[in-house]
Amino acid sequence: MGKQSKKFIHFSLVITVLIPSTTVHQLIKTKKLLMKDGVLVTTFTTQSGITRDVGTGILSTMKVTFTYDEGKDIWCLLNYGKSSMNSKTQTKVYEQLVSFCGENPTEEDVSKFISKYTAENNVNLEEYASRYQSDWDKVSEMYTKIAERVFGVSLESDVTAYLTINNRSPYSIEDGMFFVGVPSWSTKTAMHELWHFYTWYKFGNTWESKTGKEKYNEIKEALTVLLNVECKELLPEGVEDKGYPQHQELRNKILAFWEKDKNIDTLWNTFVTEH
Questions:
Q1: The predicted structure's pLDDT at residue 84
Q2: Which residues, in sequence order, are bridge partners of residue 41?
Q3: What's the whole-number average pLDDT of the chain?
Q4: 27-67 pLDDT, tens digit each
Q5: Do residues 180 and 128 touch, judged by C-beta distance below 8 A?
Q6: Would you tell me how many other CB atoms lie within 10 Å of the CB of residue 156?
Q7: Nearest CA to 264 among 139, 153, 141?
Q8: CA atoms 63, 68, 74, 77: torsion sign
Q9: Cα 238 → chain centroid
Q10: What percent of the chain shows pLDDT beyond 90?
């Protein structure tokens, strides 16, 4: 994936004291385990006073580590700057890259552009990696419990979130990674990309070959609308998962279905056969 990295900044923080952040709307204030109807339930209370039970069982040990690797950033720009499966338009940063060095940029061209872009925009990659990690650690445990309850599966392997100056955030389940934009960031990006991981381990191994990549992609992208319901308390204030324009009709249908039946298997079987 691109040339060998010139820069590598790595953070793996464990946050034990929650510090208020403008990027996180409602932080987890307390957590406790208790027995309800004979089963172990994890109950979270947010700073705003919302109390929520988010499932039973043992939380998986999967950890997301935010880091910057220039080689990965170069790869992201060269492979997903011009277009992606869900959007055929160039990203704004890729347009700036082309203005800087012309069409068909090389890895060396991109490396020079990254240095220029971060300097002109005062992007301190070390500080951003640290901030992103801190923001995510405040909500990660509750998010994981919610996702495991919804999908009935857990992610057993750690995941790496690579920072990129690109305006597009691709992911690779095979490589256990996804990208997050800098300087623009919201924990919603991580929730969205990880939702794809849970979808894959629940359905993708079986269904992608049956439905075809295009249809599977459409349904798994539309499924992220459930973040606005299930992870509403974790999203930053005023932020929601909007999805792509071409998936809006399906997203609305999924929301309507979920209001009546919060069973992910039933939902999937309904839309994979009807849609």
A1: 73
A2: 34, 56
A3: 83
A4: 444 444 443 443 344 554 455 454 555 544 555 678 999 99
A5: no
A6: 9
A7: 153
A8: positive
A9: 17
A10: 68
- pLDDT per residue as tens digits for the range 207-261: 999 999 999 999 999 999 999 999 999 999 999 999 889 999 999 999 999 999 9
Q: What is the 3-state secondary structure (H, E, C) of the chain?
A: CCCCCCCEEECCCCCCCCCCCCCCCCCEEEEEEEEECCEEEEEEEECCCCEEEEEECCCCCCCEEEEEEHHHHHHHHHHHCCCCCCCCCCCHHHHHHHHHHCCCCCHHHHHHHHHHHHHHCCCCHHHHHHHHHHHHHHHHHHHHHHHHHHHCCCCCCCEEEEEECCCCCCEECCCCEEEEECCCCCHHHHHHHHHHHHHHHHHHHHHHHHHCHHHHHHHHHHHHHHHHHHCCCCCCCCCCCCCCHHHHHHHHHHHHHHHHCCCHHHHHHHHHHHC
Domain assignment present for 82 = no
CA–CA distance, 206 with 275 (Å, rounded to integer): 17
- Does any domain span residue 92? no
**Domain assignment of residue 230, given as a range:** 8-66+125-274
Contact indicator for 234, 187 with CB cutoff of 8 Å: yes
Lookup result for tokens 């004291």: 17
Token readout for 234 is 């974790």
With respect to residue 94, please indicate whether it lies within any of the assigned structural domains: no
Residue type, 242: K
> pTM value?
0.78
Between 30 and 112, the higher pLDDT residue: 112
Number of domains observed in the structure of the chain: 1
Measure CA of the first residue to CA of the last residue in the chain; give whole Å: 35
For residue 17, tell me if it sits in a domain.
yes
Cβ atoms 193, 171 nearer than 8 A: yes
Give the Cα separation of 150 and 147 in Å (integer).
5
| Contact status, residue 40 vs residue 56, Cβ threshold 8 Å | yes
